[in-house]
Amino acid sequence: MASGPRKKYLLAPGPTPVPAEVLLRMAAPTIHHRTPEFEAIVATVRDQLKQVWQTSQDVVTLASSGTGAMEASIVNTLSPGDAILCVNGGKFGERWMKMGKTFGLNVEELKVEWGKAVDPAAIEAALKKRPEIRAVLVQASETSTTVLHPVEQIASVTRARDTLLMVDGITAVGVTDMPMDRWGIDVLVSGSQKAFMLPPGLAFIAFSERAWKATESAKLPRFYFDLRRERDNLHKNTTAYTPAINLIYGLNQALDMILAEGLPNLFARFARLGDAMRAGVRAMGLELVAPDAPSPAVTGVFTPAGIDSGALQKYLRNQLGVEVAGGQDQFKGKILRLAHLGFSDTFDIVTCIAALEFGLAKFQHDVPFGRGVGAAQAVLATGLPAAVAKS
Amino acid sequence: MASGPRKKYLLAPGPTPVPAEVLLRMAAPTIHHRTPEFEAIVATVRDQLKQVWQTSQDVVTLASSGTGAMEASIVNTLSPGDAILCVNGGKFGERWMKMGKTFGLNVEELKVEWGKAVDPAAIEAALKKRPEIRAVLVQASETSTTVLHPVEQIASVTRARDTLLMVDGITAVGVTDMPMDRWGIDVLVSGSQKAFMLPPGLAFIAFSERAWKATESAKLPRFYFDLRRERDNLHKNTTAYTPAINLIYGLNQALDMILAEGLPNLFARFARLGDAMRAGVRAMGLELVAPDAPSPAVTGVFTPAGIDSGALQKYLRNQLGVEVAGGQDQFKGKILRLAHLGFSDTFDIVTCIAALEFGLAKFQHDVPFGRGVGAAQAVLATGLPAAVAKS
């Protein structure tokens, strides 16, 4: 304790900080889930999620991590041997591929350079070449490379075809505008520990009309993740299996907060925080991982030559209490990932950039203190209201 | 909610932020106080407080604000008509005076310019002139003017005389070295909502041997604040009246954390945070209120000409969620007071200085973003360990 940090700052792209209001709500006594009391909460949350998904369809809440909802996307809509196209531009794109292969699908890979967004024309070309492809699977925000893929444009390709678009929106829903119905997304999934300001443990999934139709002919076996059963229960304001009761309390509280802020304000906040974070790291002379298509949820930055990003990450964690993410696979040791989603605001960016300045100084990298912070502040200040001279 | 701040930062000199560990400990079920279970907690806390007070005497815990402990100092040791010398260099010095007059004491005022520390020679001169003065009453840290008075030197004057030294250590005990026994302080009081990382509601008071002796002849009436009764009970690991049970749980937890860090580390931390805060505001071109004798708990700073500190304070609170204190009386509208005690560390200083930069910019005061923050960071960095190159 003597020399360690006293406060902890969660600035990784999930889990993200949980507000006290949500923690307190989750601390309420666990009630039984087959009661009118709990069903009223389920009904409220069901309506709230539809607003966030911007859909008239049901949004099903699962007791699982986001990966569970990814699996539910596949097993509910496809049959063994079906061809799918996976956009593989990072660790989570890879996960779609592994999952497809595990379930015996015919997986076509669309490889994308790490740090770049997929070109919708490449998707269109692949679908023209193989019209039998039943689904395109992509991340909205590829958290491993901090890239935002152009979902709207991809949807304009898939919705004109008999091809489902399945979007892993785990670090995108509630972060940036992703109007499911308007764009024509067929499957949109997310998880509780990202924009939803909750601990991990819940996943969310919505299907378009044609995705629901696909469930009727899909032959892949599913039991826990059978969404038809969940939908039937949802219409009775309940769940097929035991729900994560206290997380659902917290979800209700978090959605109250999200909807009180309003989606446009929420999206503008994360856009501004992302702009500020990128301005801060650029002012420090650091190179962005995804300068052309940056995620609004997380900023990737290359550490200077000679500084192992893993060592820097550990310094920030152990000496400053600041938890950021490092890089994976080809980015291991090379990048840091700095989050700005969920319960994140002005001083989280200031803290993150200041922490980076402290860390780089301790690794003998010469950046004047305050240069990155000042550049971030200049952007953050644009989001602050003017002062009224008289109090 | 749309435009307001989402997070709140308590950077005023009390109440100070309460760590989650303390909040959770206080959330335990309230037990009865006349039980072996609660008495064990009282016994532990009694020993812990003696370590913090650096005394072999008892430290009594009262269910009151700090003002209650100030009153207990007077009513337990003095009699109507007794002469006392009050160091009046701020709002809390004034309080000693008002209290003395309320209880019919013969109050001699030693006026000190706001922002300056008292000169121990002036105290010595006053005591030489009026040897009948029974007690000298002073603040260690005068929170209203952000001054640290020289308690050690004052004690060297009083301990050679038949004069008690009563020290309001409300924002000093647990912040800076104040060894009661070694220096010869006769009465040392504090409150829970400062260095003790607790909500308000508890006050602490310790008497020297000769202060306890004075209780025998003191004629001022006292009942709730009768410390002899409290001491008798304390030796039976209980309290005279109903204790603030859950606050005592929290106190136990907070003292565990304080003693695990160790007093020398704790004092060094606040000294460094204060140095950084002062470096930050000076780099912004702002003038310190108490440059010669700055409190290690709180930094006072004059706002630039034309900027009402109350308006700036409200901007920080309402637009940034940052709670700092303004000025009182002659300092009203002129100063801000920025705290660095209790559950305070590196990024609280960064946040506070960044908030000031945002606020001043919005009041059209031209300071480049990052200048103050950078100067504070340069000081804060000295307290951070070196990086080990390999993770």
Comma- or semicolon-separated keywords:
7-stranded mixed beta sheet; Aspartate Aminotransferase, domain 1; alpha/beta; 15% strand; homodimer; 14 helices; Aspartate Aminotransferase, domain 2
Descriptive report:
- Two copies of one chain form a homodimer.
- Chain A has helices spanning 20-26, 36-53, 66-77, 91-102, 120-129, 151-158, 180-183, 209-217, 227-234, 245-261, 263-283, 309-320, 346-362, 371-381; strands at 9-10, 59-63, 83-88, 106-111, 133-139, 141-142, 147-148, 164-168, 187-191, 202-207, 287-288, 298-302, 322-323, 335-339.
- In chain A, helix 4 links the parallel strand 3 and strand 4 (106-111).
- By secondary structure, the first copy, chain A, is of the alpha/beta class.
- Chain A has two domains: 9-16 and 262-381, Aspartate Aminotransferase, domain 1; 31-260, Aspartate Aminotransferase, domain 2, CATH 3.40.640.
- The longest helix of chain A has 21 residues, at 263-283.
- Chain A starts with 8 loop residues before the first strand and ends in a 10-residue tail after the last helix.
- A seven-stranded mixed β-sheet of chain A has the order 2-10-9-8-5-3-4, with helices on both faces. A three-stranded antiparallel β-sheet of chain A has the order 11-12-14. In chain A, strands 1-13 form a two-stranded parallel sheet.
